[in-house]
Amino acid sequence: MPKATFMYWQKRLDRENPDKELEEKIVEIRKANKDYGYRRMVGELRNQGYLVNKKKVQRIMQKLELQVTSFTRKSRKYSSYKGKVGTVAPNRINRRFHTHIPHQKVTTDTTEFKYYE
Known about the structure:
It comes from human gut metagenome. By secondary structure, the chain is mainly alpha-helical. The protein has helices at 3-14, 20-32, 38-47, 54-63. The radius of gyration is 30 Å and the shape is elongated. The mean pLDDT is 85.
């Protein structure tokens, strides 16, 4: 390992955490409000007079492992029903699909599925 790299990290490890006060304030707010994520936390910090960026608060909360667990997304079962959308064509065929003339009755069915890669 080069000497310059070693010395750089020695100095870096000796440095005091510049965000220590902000981290303590975030932990204090978190103890009072368990449901605060980084967005609400930024608002609360600004109300208390701290000028902070939301990304900085988000990084600090991730570092301190302060994730909100009460508002998780629930997996939903697939349902293609979206209510009555637009105009519905009249049912003229009434389940009578058999005919003697080719291409007299042509039907289609369109189904939409969500697909995530």
